[in-house]
Amino acid sequence: MQRVSLKRMRSEESSPYILQTKMHVNEKIVDSHDSNKMKQIYAKTTKMLFQAARSVSNNNIQPDRNKKTPLHRLVVISGNGQIEPAKQADEQDDEFLWVRRKAKCCNRDTYVQDKCVNCQNDLCEECGYSCVECGKFVCSPCISLFGSGNVEQPLCEKCSLFA
């Protein structure tokens, strides 16, 4: 008497066919094997590169006159309401100066209104200081909290790391 196995046979053992798997073939894969299509792509790419290089070399890039100079590059504030022109300021835009507006930080009429470089809180010439290294505006709470300099020599957070 022959013994018959009760276990089911594996499918690949019983099947004479080769194992088949699904494979997703998209247009990009098909095109990458087509030499004519690849030549077209190469020609288009080189054409675009040369056009861009020509347009950059032909355009004499002029500085944008409409671009506003950051406020911290035009004035230096000392925390007591005094405004001084910055050393590196060539020409000042009188657009922001000499127009008093209500400050968001203290509700006073002020000329300079900007944000603290450390905490992004609003400040004015009465509430803020200019960093002695980079000139960016720092509020008085940041100077006292972070110990970044003192009122006579205020430093922003970045400059205090390297001081």
Number of helices: 5
Radius of gyration (CA) equals 34 Å
Structure summary, number of beta strands:
8
pLDDT averaged over residues = 76
* Main sheet: strand order: 1-2
Backbone shape: elongated
Main beta-sheet strand count, sense and barrel state: 2 strands, antiparallel
Order of helices and strands: HHHEEEEEEEEHH
Percent strand equals: 5-15%
Please outline what is shown here.
With 163 residues, this protein is an alpha+beta fold. It has helices at residues 11-14, 27-32, 35-58, 140-146, 157-162, and strands at residues 75-77, 83-85, 101-102, 109-110, 113-115, 122-124, 128-130, 137-139.
Entry keywords:
about 160 residues, two-stranded antiparallel ribbon, elongated, CD27 receptor binding, Siva
Q: What would you note in describing this structure?
A:
There is one protein chain. The protein is an alpha+beta fold. The protein has a domain of 61 residues. Helices cover 29% and strands 13% of the residues. Strands 1-2 form a two-stranded antiparallel sheet. It has a two-stranded antiparallel sheet with strand order 3-4. Strands 5-6 form a two-stranded antiparallel sheet. Strand 5 and strand 6 form a beta hairpin. The chain is elongated. It starts with 10 loop residues before the first helix and ends with a helix. The mean pLDDT is 76. This is Apoptosis regulatory protein Siva. One of its GO terms (biological process) is extrinsic apoptotic signaling pathway. GO terms for molecular function: CD27 receptor binding. It holds the Pfam family Siva. It comes from Musca domestica.
